[in-house]
């Protein structure tokens, strides 16, 4: 599924032949880029750098074989992993509640930044996508994280797509709540209504505080397509948070922006090769990105099924997944939308 990241304002500007205004602003992808941590560079960027650096933790999130020159695809073929086909960032969101020791990767997003930095693609992998996990056989992609943390999830995706994952960032769902409250709430479009107990989500536009946003992105059982619908909700939330962060009430307010940066980075863990300096350099390279240059894609699947253990799964569209991997590997993602197929 391919969805352009475009605001109502940008759509109006496009119809009138104008360049969207906010696209001209210099953005800083603090920590996990578009996955909830997008901020604008203000006049106190050094202070923000220090704030982010003091909050961010670094761990071994990449597998030892991350620098391997090749990967084995699902069909058994071996492909080279080029180093000059842009950068790939894996963003992991864990739904571990406070006090829980186990953790699940309920948000799996691969961010591709092309070599020319003229666009950004965010690829959402549904947690129930049924794939081969190195050393574990076939299972839901979510299980890779449960079995072996971020390194095994990286290996799983590298073999599924035949691409190199350069960096990893992970956070938890509580970060969603804190960031939402830091910017004074967000306005999110819901494709379908749901009953969250303490409040109702109506079809159309909803104004959420942090607690409500957290419930919104967690819900899946009452939605028409389960995890797929939840993935679209998460995309809608990320979009809403990005839009709100780029408003003058946030980027022009040092207090609000500082609170947002603190919320965005306080629960953030990145691989040992990713620091604020690397993020800032990437952001500078992406300074000319406009809203319609950012797209969401859902990893291709053919439909729903049942695993041997009885669990519900999404079945990989092997042809389209191979096409996605090739587009990433050859840095031709701008052409991939023509072949994206999802229910």
Automatic annotation (TrEMBL):
<feature type="domain" description="Cell envelope-related transcriptional attenuator">
    <location>
        <begin position="104"/>
        <end position="244"/>
    </location>
</feature>
<keyword id="KW-0472">Membrane</keyword>
<protein>
    <submittedName>
        <fullName>Transcriptional regulator</fullName>
    </submittedName>
</protein>
<dbReference type="InterPro" id="IPR004474">
    <property type="entry name" value="LytR_CpsA_psr"/>
</dbReference>
<dbReference type="Pfam" id="PF03816">
    <property type="entry name" value="LytR_cpsA_psr"/>
</dbReference>
<dbReference type="InterPro" id="IPR050922">
    <property type="entry name" value="LytR/CpsA/Psr_CW_biosynth"/>
</dbReference>
<feature type="transmembrane region" description="Helical">
    <location>
        <begin position="26"/>
        <end position="48"/>
    </location>
</feature>
<keyword id="KW-1133">Transmembrane helix</keyword>
<comment type="similarity">
    <text>Belongs to the LytR/CpsA/Psr (LCP) family.</text>
</comment>
<keyword id="KW-0812">Transmembrane</keyword>
């Amino acid at each position: 599924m391919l969805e352009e990241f475009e605001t109502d304002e940008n759509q109006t500007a496009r119809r009138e032949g104008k360049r969207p205004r906010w696209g001209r602003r210099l953005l800083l992808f603090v920590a996990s880029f578009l996955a909830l941590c997008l901020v604008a560079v203000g006049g106190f960027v050094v202070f923000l750098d220090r704030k982010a650096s003091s909050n961010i933790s670094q761990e071994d999130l990449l597998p030892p074989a991350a620098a391997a020159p090749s990967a084995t695809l699902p069909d058994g073929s071996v492909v080279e992993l080029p180093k000059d086909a842009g950068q790939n960032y894996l963003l992991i969101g864990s739904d571990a509640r406070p006090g829980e020791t186990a953790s699940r990767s309920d948000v799996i997003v691969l961010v591709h930044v092309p070599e020319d930095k003229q666009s950004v693609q965010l690829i959402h992998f549904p947690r129930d996508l049924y794939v081969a996990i190195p050393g574990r056989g076939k299972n839901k992609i979510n299980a890779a994280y449960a079995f072996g943390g971020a390194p095994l999830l990286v290996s799983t995706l590298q073999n599924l797509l035949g691409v190199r994952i350069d960096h990893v960032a992970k956070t938890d769902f509580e970060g969603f709540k804190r960031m939402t409250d830091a910017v004074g709430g967000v306005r999110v479009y819901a494709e379908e209504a749901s009953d969250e107990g303490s409040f109702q989500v109506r079809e159309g536009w909803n104004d959420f505080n942090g607690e409500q946003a957290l419930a919104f992105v967690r819900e899946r059982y009452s939605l028409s397509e389960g995890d797929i619908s939840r993935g679209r909700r998460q995309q809608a939330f990320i979009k809403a948070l990005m839009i709100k962060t780029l408003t003058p009430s946030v980027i022009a307010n040092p207090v609000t922006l500082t609170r947002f940066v603190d919320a965005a980075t306080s629960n953030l863990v990145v691989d040992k090769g990713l620091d604020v300096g690397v993020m800032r350099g990437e952001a500078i390279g992406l300074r000319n990105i406009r809203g319609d240059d950012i797209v969401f894609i859902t990893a291709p699947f053919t439909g729903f099924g049942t695993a041997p253990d009885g669990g519900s799964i999404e079945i990989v569209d092997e042809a389209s997944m191979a096409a996605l991997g090739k587009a990433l590997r050859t840095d031709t993602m701008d052409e991939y939308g023509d072949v994206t197929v999802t229910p």
